[in-house]
Amino acid sequence: MGNLALGLFLAVTLPGGDPLAHDVGGWGAPLGIALRADGLSAILVLVTAFAAPWLALHASAAYAEPERRYFAGLFLLFLAALNGLFLAGDLFNLYVTLELLGLSAVALAALGGGPAALAASLRYLLATLTGSLAYLLGVALLYRAAGTLDLAQLAGQGTVLPGGAVAFALMVAGLLLKAAVFPLHFWLPPAHANATPPVSAALSGLAVKAPLYLVLRLWLSLYDGAWPLVAELLAALGAAGVLWCSLQAVLQARAKLLVAYSTVAQLGYLLVALALVPAAGLTAYGAFVVLLVSHVLAKAGLFLAVGNLARRARHDRIDGFERVVHHMPLSAGAIALAGVSLMGLPPSGGFSGKWLLLQAGIASGRWWLVAVVLLGGLLAAVYIFKLIEHTFGGSDRPEATALPRRMEWAALALAGSAVGLGFLGQPLLGLLGGVP
Q: If residue 45 lies in a helix (H) or strand (E), which one and from where to where?
C-alpha cells in the first residue's frame, strides 16, 4: 500500500511542476544520497505498485511453506530495489539498487525450482555480475573525470568529459547485458522458462525493464542523445531482436519458452523507440514509455496464465493445453487479452505504443524500422495464435488439477489492464511532460 500511495502522490504532484528532489539526511550532492522524481519515475513506481499485489496474490497460492516466506522476503527486497532505482539521483546509488535488484532476482529465479532452474539462475548470476562490473567501471571513469556522480550536476557533460565515451560504452554494454537484449539474451529464456510463474512474471515484467530505463536516463540526461552511431546501433539491435526472437518464439514447443523469447522480442521495440528519441522527440519517448508499461502488464499476466495451465497439466508443452478454456476460462481469457496487447491490436496499450512508434519511425524517415515493427506484429500474431489455438481448440481432456481461483484472477487482472491501458495513453503522455 505504501508503494501505491507513493506512486499516486507522485502522479498527482508532478504534472505541470518541476521534478521533486530530496537529499536524504540533509546531505546535498556530491556527498549525500539524492532522490529525484519526475514523470517517468512516477509512472514506473505506479505500474510497479499496481503489478506487485497481483504477483503476490498469485504467489500466495503457488508456493507452500517455507518457500512462501522466502518469496515474500526476496520479493520485498526486489520491489525496494526497483523503487530505489527509479528514484535514485546519482550514479553510485543507481549501481547499489541495480545490484540489489539483480541479486534478489537471481535468488527468486532459483526459488522452488529443480536442477534446471538452479543452472539457469547461476547463468543469470554470471550475466548480472558481469553487467554490474562493466557499469561500475564506467561510473568510476566518470567520477575520475568530473568528481561527482550526481545526475543533475553531470547533466549534459558526458560528451565533454575525458573518457566520457568509454564510460558510456561500458555502462550501456553492462546494462544491455542485464536487460538481456539481443544478442546478449543467452541467459533469459532458460531463467524465465524454468522459474516459478510469479517469478517469471516479475522478471519478465519488471526486472529487465530497469536496465533499459537506466540506459534512457544516461543517454538522454548525461549525454543529450549524442552520437548518431549510438542511435543506429540501438535501432539495429532492437530490430534484430524483434525479428529473430519472434521467430524463435514461433518455433518453441514449450509455452514458457515461447513467452520468454517473446520477452526478448518485445524488448527490441523498446530499443527501437529509444533509438528514435533524438530524431522524433516526445513521440518516440512516449512510445518507449507506453510500450514499457503495456509490456509489464501483458507479459506478467501471460506468464501467470501460462503457468496456471502448466500447473494444471503438470507440463508446459503447448500441445497439451487442449480445450483448457472449459476448465480454466479466466486463464484462457488472460492469454487472449495479453496477446491482444503483445500483437498491438486496438484498443490495447500495445496498440497505442506501436502506433506512436510507427509515427516516430515515419517522422524520422526510418522506413526500415516501420517495416520491422509491422513484421514483428505479424510474427507476434503467429506465436500468440499458436497458444490460443491449443488453449481454445483441440479435443477435450479431463481436468488434472484444480487451482485456487485467485491464481486465475491475478493473471486476468494484469492482462486486462494491458488492454485497458490503451484508454490511458494521453494521461501517461501528460504526466511525462517532455523528453528528459
A: helix 39-62
